[in-house]
Structures are given as structure tokens and as C-alpha cells.
Amino acid sequence: MNKYIISKKLDFILIQFPIWIPFVFLSVTNLFPESYKVVLILYLIFGEIHFGSTFIFFLDKKYRELFQDEKYIFLFWPILLVLFCIFFSFIFSVSAVLFLILLFNFYHVNRQSIGILKLYENKKNQSLNNHSILLLYMISFSLCLIGILKFIFKSDLYFSYSSKINLIIILLITISLLYIFINLLLSDNKDFSLLTNFSTGILIFSPVLFCNNIIDVFAIGVGMHYMQYIAITWTVFHRKAVKKNESGDKQFFKIANLKKIILYLLFYSILMVYFSNLNIEYKNEQIGIYLIPIFFQLIHFYIDMFIWKFSSNHTRENLNPYIFNISK
Fold this sequence. Notes:
Strand order of the largest sheet: 1-4
Distance between the termini: 5 Å
Strand content: under 5%
Order of helices and strands: EHHHHHHHHHHHHHEEHHHE
């Protein structure tokens, strides 16, 4: 029995190996350089749709009840986190806050990549699954460190040895992919989803090796993470709406109408992109993006730690039953 979230084909295209996301960006912007800003804005809107998708969980009464029961987690700490970032920006600089949020971002993205590896893992290859998770952590940490040295600290030491460092990382990625491929080839079960899931987890941050702007890293690589999150979240929510409708919960089905959700997320994402481009200056830095969009992104990173916590009874009851479309 194979487990799929949507279907075999769509899982591969949207979740396991959405390599078309960076290809579309690179192809269009290279063929039509004048379209770069338009394409970038569209990808940013796509990213904000991903951020906003977290909040649609609270259309579900069960999640609103969770919010009420655990205000300490879902209200007190997010407010404290935002206040800390504001305080941090006054003491140091606004861009220093970006460094903290990037660390949270790296953790969040890697956590999802590991989660996807576990969702599709083959129990017969458990040792290889564990090795793949360790390799993914090691390579992702290296890529994140390069991103911090390159874009945040602008380290002269890194730029002096960047070609050698990049070569070492590329060799490490190549050896890891070969190791997983050969082991899968020699195994009795020829399920190569582990290889595609691992490859995507690595490719998400790989653009730090060749991009000169951090925004391009997110559009090209992290765009795959956005696609994975949207595909999984929307599928879970839609499946839950259908099952609740079949059980007689008509109100939830009305609230979870896909058209309404798309309109809400489009409005949310366009608003966030608009705020991020506000021409507001503080300490010689443009801070439009920090006023609202970054804080909502931060809350997305934080809340997701609890919404997708599979050890939680609430998650097991309200999310687990709706993840897979079981196909024999």
C-alpha cells in the first residue's frame, strides 16, 4: 500500500520534486530580463500565500478552541516575540532582526523537509532514512551558514575562499545523492521517493551558492518549500471540509470553501507585498518590510511548530486523519 497526500503524480510534481519552480523563474527572467521585477513580485505573492495558509487552520472550530485553551502558547509568546524583535531593532539595527528571523526561517524550512522525508519514509529502509536525515541536516546547516556569511555578515573570509567552499559543498551533495541512489538501487524495494524528497530538501537552499541577492534565493529555492506547504495544507483542509460535510457539519464546509480561501489568501499576500515596499526609513534603513510582513512571517514560523507537532494529541486527532489519500 502506497501513501500519497494528493496522488502519485501530483505528489511528485508539487511536493516531492517541484523542481519546475526554480526552472520557471530562471527561464523567464533569463529569456526576458525586463520581466524580472514582475516575476519576482509574483513569486513574493506566492510566498505570502504560503505564509497566510497557516492562519486558515483557525477557520476550524477545533483550532480556535485550541487557541482559547492555550493562550499562553498562541498569544502570549507571539506578542513577546514581536516585542523582543522591536526592542532588538532599537538596540542594534533593523537589519539585525532579519538575521534572527533568518535563523528561524532556516529552522522552519529544514523542519518541513525532514517532515516530508518522514511522511514518505519506507520502513524497510529505516537505516537509510535515518542516514538521509543526518545528511540533510549537515548539508542544510552548511548552506545556511554560507547564506549568513554571504548575505548577512558579508564576510571577506568567505568571499576569499568562496569557490573552494562551494566546490566542497557541491561534492558533499553529489556524494550524498550517490550514496542514497546506490543504496536504493541495491534494496529490494525500488521506491525512489526518498531520493526526490532528499534532493528537494537540499536544492531549497542551494541557490545561496550562486545567487548574489538573498531575495533570489527565496524566489528560486525556497519557492519549492512554499509549493510543498501550500499543496499539503490546502489538501488537508479540503479533505477535512469534505469529510465534515459528509458527517453533517455544513457550516465548516461553507467556511472552508476553496474560492473564499483563495480570495482571502490573495488579498492577504498582495497586502503583505504592498506593506513590504512602503518607503519608510529608520536609521538609514528601509523598514517597510519589517512593520507588518516580517512579523506575520515570524508568527507563521512559530505557530507551525505547534500545528504540525505530530506528538500532540490535538494534531493526531485533527490533522493526522486528513493527511493521506490511501491508494492500494
